[in-house]
Amino acid sequence: MNQKKEPPRLMKGNEALAEAALRAGLQAYFGYPITPQSEILEYLTEHGAKRGAVVLQAESELAAINMVYGAAGAGARAMTSSSSPGISLMQEGLSYMTSAQLPCLVVNVSRGGPGLGTIQPAQSDYFQATKGGGHGDYHLIVLAPSSVQEMADFVFDAFRLSEKYRNPAMILADGALGQMMEKVSLPAEGSLPPGDKPWATVGKPASRERNIITSLFIEPERMEEVNLHLQKKYHEIQQEVRYEEIETNDAEILLVAFGLAARIAQKAVELAREKGIKAGLLRPITLYPFPSQIISSLSRKVISFLVVEMNAGQMVEDVRLAVAGGRPVAFKGRMGGMIPSPEEVLEEIESIAESYRIPAV
Amino acid sequence: MHQAHEMIVSGFGGQGVLSLGQILSYGAMIEGKEVSWMPSYGPEMRGGTANCTVIVSESRISSPIVSRFDSAVILNQPSLEKFEGSVKPGGMLFFEESAMIRPPKRTDIEVLGVPALQEAVKLGKKQVANMVMLGAFLQRCPLVQSESILEALKGVLPERHHHLLPLNKQALMAGIEFAFRRERSSKRTLAGPGTGIPVERHN
Prior knowledge:
The complex is a heterodimer.
Chain A: E1 9-12, H1 13-23, E2 28-31, H2 38-47, E3 54-57, H3 61-73, E4 78-82, H4 84-89, H5 91-99, E5 105-110, H6 126-130, E6 141-143, H7 148-165, E7 169-174, H8 175-179, E8 181-184, H9 220-237, E9 243-246, E10 253-256, H10 259-274, E11 279-284, E12 286-288, H11 292-298, E13 304-309, H12 315-323, E14 329-333, H13 342-355
Parallel strand pairs in A: 2-3, 2-4, 4-5, 5-7, 6-7, 10-11, 10-13, 13-14
Antiparallel strand pairs in A: 1-8, 6-12, 9-11
Helix pairs in contact in A: 1-2, 1-7, 3-5, 10-13, 11-12
Chain B: E1 4-12, H1 17-30, E2 34-39, E3 49-57, E4 69-74, H2 77-83, E5 87-96, E6 110-114, H3 116-122, H4 129-140, H5 146-156, H6 165-189
Parallel strand pairs in B: 1-4, 4-5, 5-6
Antiparallel strand pairs in B: 1-3, 2-3
Helix pairs in contact in B: 1-5, 3-4, 4-6, 5-6
């Protein structure tokens, strides 16, 4: 994609994401306020209508996702955003939309749980985001930004992927990424043209059969066919995997972390390198599809893994599946809205280095 | 300049803590530097202690969250209790003089009390105390040129408040001048060890 960039701006993650959505040709937004993502709704309410988007504060998250369902069915580029408890309320709608094969963007600026929880940042919605979340055999396409720049850029990627595969896509951020300000170069307006949507229910011309959008397939034979088609699609989606490697070339201890935790892990890698410990970082950018292959191939080069998350240990399960017992996989996490400090992560790296007697240079 | 400068700005909500950090970040961005501004958000903003972490760097910033700081700008007593111990040895601590019953105790860092509120009242608007503080900070720790700060103010202040730009500039200059005068007097009289007061200008 050829995205021309204008001079950088200093923006909050939530605002950058909302502005990027308008530039990506957003046609319909439905949402309900919840900290720490309310700036998305606020920004779109202020700027959306002037720029041709329908922006509506729904009466609940259930209503919002079902409005997105309707708008997507009519072929609109549609999105919603919320934070953890609100995203839980949307799971039924997301399950329906994957079955009905409709594209949309869902943004989760997640916070600590379970329950109503806290408004502080957390990554404890990883399972929900990557394993389906609602009922039935499905996945969302999940992108995990780790900077304000990526909060903006991934809106384009998420719309593009969700429309290519006719499957909802999620941007899984967290409260810190939503609230913090960084320099951001916004992608140019109009760089994501609307694609063909011959399946959309926009009125039947004489030239074709009726388009039907449904998630109800009452005969099991038909339901299995739909499932086989979805599975084929998820297989194809594996080619969209993205990740970033930092100092992995000669790494002996490989950290794996996504989103904000990856930024903290990167700092810990820098601190470890200053102490002569060969640490590196693999940052999954797509959480679904998960970068299993690269983790598997790196497992043949490194001595040990350390997964860092802002939860009780969720992505670590996918890392262990990829490593398949070939190397030890340690875990460092903080929960409930607490954020691990780079120094805390460094301590873990040092204790692993100590236990394997990796000599300091 | 050190490759990255990591600082905390902390005080009560309404003291201009978050905007101080934001104006500094914006100014650094204008100069082509990498910046991150991480606010505390939530219940503490509504009447309690508010703070933001600002990082200014010549290269890509890894963690926007740090627990040790090169400098701290402290506008109230609870923030001092919370962050005095988190300043790295050799770092700097600026505090609002009128807000402290118990002043900082550290002797392994540079400490500068600034009568920011008093200077702002002299200018006729106590809301610009944060700019006085920013001026004093920049005099001691020249991360960003004051021209860039003035440019940043235009970007951060909504246009309906642009008539306040000259006042903000005066406040910034008052802070710069205060820190400059303090440096000169400390050079003359306090060149001995253990005073905790620096004798050299950084720029």
